[in-house]
Amino acid sequence: MSSRLQSLAFGLLCLIGAVASIGLTVHEVAKTAPVSLSVTHTTRTGLTTLVTIEASNRTSVDRCLTVRVAARDRDGHDLAATVAAAALELPAHGRRTVQARLTLTTRQYAEDLHAFYPSQRPCGP
């Protein structure tokens, strides 16, 4: 193979790599959830934990969500769950904070609890 052909093959390979990286970046951006939920704070008093959840709308469209929070063990099983907001109105590019109370047993706190997980679904039936 001549050096000119090798240079052409290398340039073509670089071009294909650049196009693939741009395509994958666009694909990942498109997969980004329109609304994100995160647990920002937890406060435990006795057997009850107050969980604070922040909802962020990343779109230019108003949204309505039902927000649920669950206390889960390491295997992903719910130890307790509750609805934090049945119909949370989230304005375009807005943020809202909601709170939920969950009560667990002493054993669940000591042995089972892994983390608190928020989840969402659109409002309505």
Structural features, described:
This protein has 2 helices and 6 strands, in the order H-E-E-E-E-E-H-E. Helices cover 29% and strands 51% of the residues. It is α+β, with helices and mostly antiparallel strands and 125 residues long. The strands form 2 sheets. It has a 3-stranded antiparallel beta sheet with strand order 1-2-5, with no helix packed on it. It folds into 2 domains: 1-32; 35-122, Immunoglobulin-like (Sandwich), CATH 2.60.40.10.
Helix count, DSSP H or I runs of 4 or more residues? 2
Quote the distance from N terminus to C terminus.
66 Å
Task: Please provide the count of β strands.
Answer: 6
Low-confidence stretches are none
> What is the H/E order?
HEEEEEHE
Q: Please state the structural category.
A: alpha+beta
Strand-residue proportion: over 45%
Q: What is the general shape?
A: elongated
CATH superfamily of the largest domain: Immunoglobulins
Alpha-carbon Rg, integer: 23 Å
Main pleated sheet: 3 strands, antiparallel
Tell me the name of the CATH class of the largest domain: Mainly Beta
Main sheet: which strands, in order across?
Answer: 1-2-5
Second-tier CATH architecture of the largest domain: Sandwich
- Indicate the mean pLDDT: 90
- Count of all domains: 2
Using the coordinates shown, work out and report the CATH topology of the largest domain: Immunoglobulin-like
Percentage of helical residues?
A: 25-40%
